[in-house]
Design a protein that fits this description.
mainly alpha
Length: 256
């Protein structure tokens, strides 16, 4: 019994101390399989399943976006992250959260980079949107599967459905994309990993349409760059949440 306990302790200790340099690199093929599969699933959900459910039930399409995307996309991303990290030999503890997934305590420098990135992303995205509005008669501010009229008082309950979806959205993407995959892409692509990562993160958003994809370019690359530079996945959570949440609320209350 003691030998079994000691063997288990040795396995735990070696997993905790596993240097990230020994992570298996994630190249173009592996990135394509993961991001590409997620993109296909998201496209099928948003262009077929969600419209079907909405048309059959008469319930607003955005409600099914929250449910289908939350449970059918972002929750599976969390599960995939769990499976991948487990297969790497790590145990689920504070060491994994801090050293493997890089969710580390935010420093003053991290917050400065966050604020700078949020400002730059907001500014450049607004410029892109303005250029699109100058060049085109109609600009999509949200994809069809998120289309809804500005909320009136009797529809404020939609925000209660949105909140758990939003949390799954942010944490599902950040734990898998930035916490699990980006470090492995850094092993393969070095200092250029953020660029490769940003491209594949864009592939994931193809279902949103080309107009919105253009406005996403700043966050796709700036967030990836800052997370890689600072080696802190909480930065991705802060930036993603700060851009995603207020954008939805602005649309919900008719400000966009």
């Amino acid at each position: 019994m003691q030998n079994a306990f000691e063997a288990s302790f040795v396995r735990l200790s070696s997993a905790e101390k596993m240097p990230l340099e020994k992570l298996k690199g994630l190249g173009i093929l592996g990135s394509s399989m993961i991001f590409g599969t997620a993109a296909i699933v998201l496209f099928l959900e948003t262009h077929f399943l969600i419209p079907f459910l909405s048309s059959r039930s008469g319930i607003e399409v955005v409600i099914f976006w929250f449910i289908v995307a939350g449970l059918g996309m972002f929750l599976p991303l969390l599960i995939l992250a769990y499976v991948m990290v487990k297969r790497e030999g790590f145990e689920f503890n504070k060491t994994l959260w801090r050293d493997r997934l890089r969710f580390r305590k935010m420093t003053g420098g991290d917050w400065l980079w966050c604020l700078g990135a949020i400002f730059a992303i907001g500014l450049v995205s607004a410029v892109i949107m303005q250029v699109l509005e100058m060049l085109m008669q109609q600009v999509e501010h949200q994809p069809p599967f998120m289309d809804f009229d500005p909320l009136t008082r009797d529809h404020y309950w939609i925000l209660l459905v949105w909140l758990p979806y939003w949390l799954l959205n942010i944490m599902g993407e950040e734990i898998l994309w930035r916490g699990t995959l980006l470090p492995r892409q850094e092993v393969r692509f070095g200092k250029h990993a953020w660029l490769v990562h940003g491209i594949f993160w864009g592939v994931f958003h193809i279902a949103f349409g080309w107009q919105l994809l253009l406005t996403l370019i700043p966050i796709l690359f700036l967030q990836s760059y800052v997370v890689q530079r600072r080696k802190n996945s909480w930065i991705g959570v802060v930036i993603h949440a700060a851009i995603n949440g207020p954008s939805f609320l602005a649309i919900a209350f008719g400000l966009l």
